[in-house]
What does this fold into?
Amino acid sequence: MQHLSSHPGVVTLKAVYEDARFFHLVMELCSGGRLLDQMREDVLFSEQKPTNLMKELMLVLKYCHDMGVIHHDVKPDNILLSASGSIKLADFGLAARIANGQSLFGVVGSPAYVAPEVLISAYYEKVDIWSAGVVLHALLVGLLPFGGGSVNTVFEAVKNMSINFQDKLWDSI
It folds into this structure.
């Protein structure tokens, strides 16, 4: 977080304190709360609000990737909102540094937001863009595109399901 905190779209780490049992991270106040909470409150957004949120998110992710950082866990829980409503990407607990052209291996991230590449092969920082697309789907439709009763079912849906944009679900958008 310290490596990235000069960007206005990344939550600022103010201080770190350590006691005998814990590290305590003091971050900037994001009084707008989590995007997830706003999604629960508003259920469906107009097209303009997701457009603005996604533009901000793409700029933040580009910055992270340019700085050699893959977030690995882009989801509404980890997108905070400032008092003005602008986004602040948070929770870099799963983040990793990645060199230009370096590929990563291993399943990392939240099941419904993880890219298929993470589940089946080597992957690059672009998996964060997939996760942002899942966030956009949830903002526009009010549902996640991939679901299931277990983590394995969700993973199978992510790997095998194709989204039909002609479906009646999209008629209301």
Observations:
- Residues 103 and 123 are 5 Å apart (CA to CA).
- The chain has one domain: 30-170.
